[in-house]
Structures are given as structure tokens and as C-alpha cells.
From TrEMBL:
All copies of domain Nicotinate phosphoribosyltransferase N-terminal, residue ranges: 8-128
Recorded family membership: Belongs to the NAPRTase family.
Single Gene Ontology MF annotation: nicotinamide phosphoribosyltransferase activity
Protein name per Swiss-Prot or TrEMBL: Nicotinate phosphoribosyltransferase
One Pfam family named in its UniProt record: NAPRTase_C
Classification of source organism: Bacteria, Pseudomonadati, Bacteroidota, Flavobacteriia, Flavobacteriales
Domain Nicotinate phosphoribosyltransferase C-terminal: 350-454
Reactions performed catalytically: 5-phospho-alpha-D-ribose 1-diphosphate + nicotinate + ATP + H2O = nicotinate beta-D-ribonucleotide + ADP + phosphate + diphosphate
Keywords: Glycosyltransferase, Ligase, Phosphoprotein, Pyridine nucleotide biosynthesis, Transferase
Post-translational modification: Transiently phosphorylated on a His residue during the reaction cycle. Phosphorylation strongly increases the affinity for substrates and increases the rate of nicotinate D-ribonucleotide production. Dephosphorylation regenerates the low-affinity form of the enzyme, leading to product release.
Pathway: Cofactor biosynthesis; NAD(+) biosynthesis; nicotinate D-ribonucleotide from nicotinate: step 1/1
Span of domain Nicotinate/nicotinamide phosphoribosyltransferase: 150-343
EC number assigned by the record: 6.3.4.21
Any Gene Ontology biological process: NAD+ biosynthetic process via the salvage pathway
Length: 465
């Protein structure tokens, strides 16, 4: 997508002009994190980093952006600065596809304050949305077990969000998408069946199936619920499957899009098998989500492939991930944001996050946040409850934030969507089951080093007096 630097909120530019005019232009550190897991779940899947790095490397204001800003009262010298604007900062980040948890930095930006401020909205827009959708996809994957998952959501996505949703769905564990543009741009598998309109246009379902199978015999999936699934659609599909066999071809599948999907899939499987068509797959769609798929599995539904649209690409029912971007250092000095709500008090300093790994190589269930310059963190303390602490000296510490961009240029190789999806799968395999369940998942611990907690509390006291 063609994104320019004007893809931001006006207040970022207004603040940037003040920084520019008053030379209040020191180096800063901003943290990206979120406060609550979406869907009342126990984790999130971090997504969107590759898109963010690509966009930042090429970010510029266009001449029409500059003209628009001139008309909105921005002064000449600042507009001249914006004409040459490039993001030249550093980014340290978790790996895209990793399993992440609330309140700990997922990514840190270190840059001149003007640049860091201008990119805030863009960064949040990309990371919040893709992380939300990758997390939803991961939950759907958890329910579907080894079933094939196809994204069919573009028509229901929030405008151009569908483009990014299809990418994030693959990262979270989907196998393919109906979205042609996303499949082309991200080199992800494109797939699809047929719509009711195709059959309706013929009037005669059998004729419609025959034409489709003749012209598109490869990966042919016939939609069998337009008139009556078991009495009309399935017998017609079996007739066409037999005709395909006589031509040396194979029908790939039939799709169910209404009714009781457990009952219909079981009946369909039996009837197909009895007709000697055990290889024909059953695809199901119709407002699926992680809960419906879990229930279908529990009912013994015989579904090989699940097509999921609306609930996936809109991140239903959450609609948005509340990821934030908070200032933690200005010119090497720690900065904090206070709040009556303690969970909203920010963490000062440039930081590192360590994941605790147990003796089996699995996630122990705790991430510790320390000041970047600190030596090994031997004990992590609860951010707000001083009675709670954990000795982590014997556990393996995996540092999570790695340098991905320096002086505006990426310093890590490009990763394809399928590489990121593979990585995400390997990380999910290390997360114990109790964090994955939908109801009352186990709460993953986030702790601070003693030093970070002391520094934060000192700053809180300073600002309160
Ligand atoms: N056996 C089942 N167990 C649980 N949920 C199911 C089962 N079968 C279907 N569903 C889900 O129930 C909902 C059914 O919705 P609805 O009643 O609107 O569909 P329908 O009437 O069968 O189809 P349509 O309205 O598209 O013609 C969908 O979300 C579907 O995925
Ligand atoms: O249900 P979703 O998860 O969003 O999946 C995509 C849906 O989109 C298509 O039909 P559409 O909804 O356009 O029409 P229909 O409901 O009349 O089949 C398709 O047949 C699926 O049912
Ligand atoms: O290929 C399909 O079957 C499809 C694609 C988009 C939406 N509904 C169905």
C-alpha cells in the first residue's frame, strides 16, 4: 500500500512543529506495548513488524501532503524540514510471530523526538491491527487443530484492513486466503470455491456444477447448499465427481454454508464414502469462529477445511487492540507517565525483556523487564505488589528485544510471511496449554527487575510531590 508520512494524526505534526521551532529536539525512547490480551485470552501473537519496517524505510511526505500542511498553517521552515524528512532512528523489537503478553515492551523506538512522534500513529495502526488479527487467527487454529483454515473475510473487513488481515491470519496459523491482492503481495496461498450466485445464474444446479468442473477441474469445490444440501446438492456433486473420474480428474471438495454443520458434514461424509468418494473433502463456512469450530469438533463434525470470514478479519468481538506508545526517555533521562489507574503507569528507561525458559526448553510462564544496561536479572518483582517476587536465577533467560533497524535502515534480513508463521508455530508449541484455553486462561507473569522497580517508584514519588 502506498503510505506517506501524512498517515498520522494532526497533533503529531503540531507537536513536531513546536519541537522544531524551539529546538526541543533531543533523542527519545518510546515503548510499544498493550495492557490487556484481546478476546479475554492468555496471550497475543505479535504481527505487522515487516510491514512497519518496509514503510519506515521509505517514508516521505509527498508534495501534495506538504501543500495540504501549508494550507493548514504549518510554517515554511518546518515544511522545508518535512520535505527532507526521513526516519533515521533505531528500532529494537520482539520477533514478528512471537507470543507476547500485556504490559511489557514489545518494541522500542529510539530516535529524534520529531521523527519518533511523527511515526507513532502509523506504528500503532499497523501493529495493533495485525497483532489483533494474528491473535484471533491463532485462537481459531487452536480450535481447528490440524484442519485446513482459509481466510474468506475481505468483503467484511474494515476497508483496506482486509489486506493486512489476510497477512496476519497466515501468521496466526491460517493456510490460505481468498484475497487475491494480499496473496500476490505477500506470496501466500490463494484459494477459493464458488458462490451461490454462480448456481443461481444457471437455475439448474447440475449444469452449473458440470460447467465449473469442466473449466476449472483443478481444486474444484462445489457449493452444495443452494437448494437442498442432502437431497439435491450432494447427489449433483456426486454425479459430477463420477464424471470427473471418467475424465481422469478428481473433485476436490464440497462446501456446506448453512444449516447444522455437524449433522450435515457427518451425513455428507457417509454418503460420499458410500459412493466411493472418500477423497472428496468437506469444506464448511458460515459465521465460524474459534468457539463454533471448537463445538463442531466436539460434536464429531467431519469437516476438513474451515472457511472463516467476518469473525476473523474484524477481530470480533474486540474490534481493536489497545496498544500504546509511551515515552520512556528524553536525552538519556528517564521519563514516566502517572495515572490513578496503576496499570497505566508507564515504565521509564530503555529496557530489555527476558523470557524465562524452563529445563525442557518450554516457556516457564514469566517475562522479566529490566533496564537495558543492567546485568543479569536474578529476581523479578511484581510491578505493583511488593510482597510478590520470583527467584529467576536458575532459569534460562532469553532476551526478546533485538535490533531490527539502525539509523533508519533495517539490519535484519527480510522474513517471508510463511517463515514468520513457522516461527510463530514453534513459539506457540513452547507455550503451556493452560495459557491457551479460552476460559480463565492462566495469567502469564510479567515482572520488573528490582532496579527498574526502584527507579520507577523514585520517579513516581518525585512527580507526586
Ligand atoms: N452444529 C453446530 N454447532 C454449533 N454451531 C453451529 C452448528 N452448525 C452451524 N453452526 C453455526 O450456527 C450459526 C448458524 O447461523 P444461521 O442460523 O444464521 O445460519 P443458517 O440459517 O444455517 O444459514 P443461512 O442464514 O446462511 O442460510 C453459524 O454461526 C454457524 O456456523
Ligand atoms: O460467514 P463468514 O465467516 O463471514 O465467511 C464468508 C462468507 O461469505 C460468503 O457468503 P456471504 O456471507 O457473502 O453470503 P451468504 O451469507 O448469503 O452465504 C461465504 O459463503 C461465507 O458464508
Ligand atoms: O472461495 C470462497 O468460497 C469464498 C470466498 C470469499 C467469501 N466466501 C466464500
Amino acid at each position: 500500500m502506498n503510505i506517506t508520512a501524512a498517515y498520522t494524526d494532526l497533533y503529531q505534526l503540531t507537536m513536531a512543529q513546536v519541537y522544531f521551532s524551539t529546538k526541543h529536539d533531543g533523542r527519545v525512547v518510546f515503548d510499544y506495548y498493550y495492557r490487556n490480551n484481546p478476546f479475554d485470552g492468555g496471550y497475543s501473537i505479535f504481527a505487522g513488524l515487516e510491514d512497519l519496517l518496509d514503510i519506515l524505510e521509505n517514508l516521505k511526505f509527498s508534495s501534495s501532503d506538504l501543500l495540504f500542511l501549508e494550507q493548514h498553517g504549518f510554517e515554511r521552515a518546518f515544511l522545508d524540514y518535512l520535505r527532507d524528512f526521513r526516519f533515521q532512528g533505531n528500532i529494537r523489537s520482539s520477533k514478528e510471530g512471537d507470543v507476547v503478553f500485556p504490559t511489557r515492551p514489545i518494541l522500542q523506538v529510539e530516535a529524534n523526538i520529531i521523527e519518533a512522534q511523527i511515526i507513532e500513529t502509523l506504528l500503532l495502526n499497523i501493529l495493533n491491527f495485525q497483532t489483533l488479527i494474528a491473535t484471533k487467527a491463532s485462537r481459531i487454529r487452536h480450535s481447528a487443530k490440524d484442519g485446513v483454515l482459509l481466510d474468506m473475510g475481505l468483503r467484511r473487513a474494515h476497508a483496506t484492513g482486509g489486506y493486512y488481515a489476510s497477512r496476519a491470519a497466515i501468521i496466526g496459523g491460517f493456510d490460505g486466503t481468498s484475497n487475491v491482492k494480499a496473496a500476490e503481495a505477500y506470496n501466500i496461498p490463494a484459494s477459493g470455491t464458488m458462490a451461490h450466485s454462480f448456481i443461481q445464474s444457471y437455475g439448474d444446479e447440475l449444469e452449473a456444477f458440470r460447467d465449473f468442473a469442466k473449466v476449472r477441474p483443478k481444486n474444484c469445490v462445489l457449493l452444495i447448499d443452494t437448494y437442498n444440501t442432502l437431497k439435491i446438492g450432494l447427489p449433483n456433486a456426486i454425479t459430477v465427481a463420477k464424471e470427473m473420474e471418467s475424465r481422469g480428474e478428481q473433485l476436490m471438495g464440497v462446501r456446506l454454508d448453512s444449516g447444522d454443520l455437524a449433522y450435515l458434514s457427518k451425513r455428507t461424509r457417509t454418503i460420499l464414502d458410500e459412493a466411493g468418494l472418500g477423497y472428496v473433502k468437506i469444506v464448511a463456512s458460515n459465521q465460524l469462529d474459534e468457539y463454533v469450530i471448537k463445538s463442531l469438533k466436539e460434536q464429531g463434525a467431519k469437516i476438513d477445511i474451515f472457511g472463516v470470514g467476518t469473525n476473523l478479519v474484524t477481530g470480533k468481538p474486540d474490534a481493536s487492540l489497545g496498544g500504546v506508545y509511551k515515552l520512556s526517555e528524553y536525552k538519556g533521562e528517564p521519563r514516566i507517565k502517572l495515572s490513578e489507574n496503576i496499570i497505566k503507569v508507564s515504565l521509564p528507561y530503555k529496557k530489555q525483556v527476558y523470557r524465562m525458559i524452563d529445563q525442557n526448553g518450554l516457556f516457564y510462564g514469566a517475562d522479566a523487564v529490566g533496564i537495558y544496561s543492567e546485568d543479569k536479572v536474578n529476581e523479578m518483582v511484581h510491578p505493583f505488589d511488593s510482597t510478590k517476587n520470583l527467584d529467576i536465577s536458575a532459569l534460562k533467560h532469553e532476551p526478546l528485544l533485538e535490533s531490527v533497524m539502525e539509523n533508519g535502515k533495517r539490519v535484519v534480513p527480510f522474513r517471508t510471511v510463511s517463515e514468520i508463521a513457522e516461527y510463530s508455530k514453534s513459539r506457540m508449541a513452547k507455550l503451556p496449554e493452560e495459557y491457551k484455553r479460552f476460559q480463565n486462561p492462566h495469567i502469564y507473569k510479567i515482572g520488573l527487575s528490582n532496579k527498574l522497580k526502584q527507579e520507577r517508584d523514585t520517579l513516581v514519588r518525585q512527580h507526586k510531590t
